[in-house]
Amino acid sequence: xxxxxxxxxxxxxxxxxxxxxxxxxxxxxxxxxxxAAHLQSRAxxxxxxxxxxTDAEMLLDSGVASKSDLASQDPVELGRRLNAIASRYIExxxxxxxxxxxxxxxxxxxxLAKL
Length: 115
Fold this sequence. Notes:
It is built from 8 helices and no strands. The protein is mainly alpha-helical.
């Protein structure tokens, strides 16, 4: 339903979503402005090569809300935060142990976010 509402607003691609004010989305759809901002943050992270859906959610849970946020991270500190989040996700059955991001993968994400 939300996708239909966004399309009715003229938001038909990720670029349109990122460039639309979250308050406007909130006023014209069932999404709150906060939910719209969350969707925009998720979309930004998913545009970085090798970041998948679960990776983006873990990054958001760690406080990384944009490409520029990711670019400014220290890989070891971010890795520690993501390790704790991944452990929780494993306990909850959201991911398997092999899906925990390595420091090498996190470093690559940070480098790609800087491009």
